[in-house]
Amino acid sequence: MSSFIVSARKYRPQRFEDVVGQQHVAGTLKNALATNHVAHAFLFTGPRGVGKTTCARILAKILNCENRTPDHEACNECSSCRAFKENASFNIIELDAASNNSVEHIRALTEQVRFQPQQGRYKVFIIDEVHMLSNQAFNAFLKTLEEPPPYAIFILATTEKHKIIPTILSRCQIFDFRRITVGDMVIHLKSICAKENLQADDDALHIIGQKADGALRDALSIFDRITAGAAGGRITYDAVIENLNVLDYDYYFQVTDALLAEDASAILNLFDQILRKGFEPDIFINGLAEHLRNILVCKDAATLNLLEAGEVLKDRYRKQAAIAPAPFILTALNLCNECDIQFKTARNKRLHVEMALLKMCYINRMVKTGGQEKKTPDLNGNASGYSSSPAQATARPAATPPVSGNATELSRDVFNTITTEVKLGLRKSETVSLRLDAYESAVELEEARNATLTSRLSLENARNEWKFYAESIDSRLARISLNNAELTLDGKTVTATVGSLIDQNNLKAELLRVTDVLRSRLNDRAIVVEVRLDEQKAAIQTATRPARPLTTREKLDKMREANPLIDDLIRNFDLKPDD
User: Fold this and answer.
1) Which runs of consecutive H residues, i.e. helices, occur in 174-233?
2) At what angle do helices 281-297 and 349-361 cross, to 10 degrees?
3) CA angle, residues 340, 423, 391, in degrees to nearest 5
4) How confident is the model at residue 385 (pLDDT cuts 50, 70, 90)?
5) For 299, left (φ over 0), alpha (ψ -120 to 50), or beta?
6) What is the mean pLDDT of residues 214-230?
7) Fewer CB within a 10 Å sphere, N or C end of the chain?
8) DSSP label at 3?
9) How far apart are CA 313 and CA 248, in angstroms?
10) Measured in whole angstroms, how far is the alpha carbon of residue 481 from the centre of its chain?
């Protein structure tokens, strides 16, 4: 049999001072031991793998230790500590409530409470995953938990405090355990590497800590998996990302550099390489958002401590943050967020992410200050991003004076319009060169442009656009309600009359979207859409609605009314009608 012991067990803390990341809990419990103010019931709550059961066992061991140290830790040498270490202590009873959650199990537990400890002062009951107890078990446990004998102490542990009934919570001292930070995990993993004579890259340990998501037990499990295949006793960054299937951060640095250089070709090629390595598009876009967030926190020394990375990686982030403008980072983060939200509904997921990347590629050009001449982008990889074609230069119209201000946010409609112009080049019709430095100014300019368009509002055009919108939506019920509506026009008000409450509610749900469509398609921002219920039609529809089908019992009752002999038939043959 193998003598290997997993790190989570081998290096489980035996003293409060060894507990990782829970100093607030350890300090409070040690103070309670020092002043002899130990409660009879504790509730340890928090995420998985953060030390709840470990702290419960340490506390139970200290309570029965015969020779406590001056700093109120267990001596690990007395008979009680040795029995605990050998898992032979009769004073510490552990119960897994996940598999022992019935009233009978709790009654058996309360029976054990009646007997005094054979050795030591206290009998400690540790109930793990206590939220799994049934309501009946909780109620059977209430009286014992409220008034236990002086030698009994209960320590409850759970990951889901909200599932525990309030009467149990009110009888316990509650300690909330925190997620373990990546920095604390890295320090702990380094100490284990020193004991195991292993060498590890800082970046590799940071990746393990990030992948563990706040659970030290998960980090130790990943650590064991990596060390099992570590060549020459060294844990490298490349080995960790390959084992954990994590995308190399170097790709994100290259993509960001290409975005800042407006190199569309390089961006698309890098994205293709990432897909060829087997990574999903949504994994990449979320990783890019995390990368941009890390750049953002490096823009200010006050937020630099929020970056959870090794020193070498921090230096690379600082260098890239120095050349990346804050408006670019914020706008790119917003585009990543929108891309992630809409990813599930996108049919061509690769194209969906590529469009988001191309929009990011030209952010700097849209927030650039100064009334510069509008230029056509070079999509062939030119780092400058400008075309020098003489024919295009002569075809460019005069630019409208730029808008002044500081770029903080972009109007979505204006952003999409300009992105299309940047990708496709100048249109033959007149275009407007904008310097988008303020959201309000961009919106005003867009509204001014719409005001110059000729309104196409008429009843026939409104009906055509209404029908076109109805056919374009996915919801079948909304499409039926839109088609059932009768439109009338009074000035700028389009009234949609329907004959049922269902159609009325469906139209109200679509009211904002259909209003925007009519205003945009008919070039008239003053259009108002109202929904009206034809009460006469609604009443007729309600009156003619077919009655609900009869139940089996109602059918039998009607048969009894028509023929009394049915009762004799049921009685003679001992029939039991279905309900």
Assistant:
1) 182-195, 202-212, 216-228
2) 30
3) 175
4) very low
5) alpha
6) 86
7) N
8) -
9) 12
10) 35
Two tokens, residue 401: 């004076």
CA dist., res. 199 & res. 205, Å (int): 11
Distance CA 137, CA 163 (A): 13
Kindly report the CATH number that applies to the domain delimited by 182-244: 1.10.8.60
Is residue 223 a contact partner of residue 189, using CB atoms and an 8 Å limit?
yes
Grouping H, G, I as helix, E, B as strand and the rest as coil, residue 342 is helix
**Could you tell me where in the chain the CATH 3.40.50.300 domains are found?**
7-176
Q: How many CA atoms lie within 13 A of 432 on its CB side?
A: 16
43: pLDDT strictly greater than 90 = yes
Percent of the chain with pLDDT over 70: 82
Torsion of CA 552, 555, 560, 563, to 10 degrees: -130
**How far apart, in Å, are the Cα atoms of 60 and each of 16, 54, 195, 265, 413?**
12, 10, 27, 63, 64
Flag whether pLDDT at 546 surpasses 80: no
Q: Are 240 and 208 in contact (CB under 8 A)?
A: yes
Q: Which residue has the tokens 């650039």?
A: 368
Domain 459-543 matching CATH 3.20.20.140: the answer reads no
The residue type at 149:
P
Using CA atoms, how far apart are residues 186 and 205, in angstroms rounded to an integer? 6
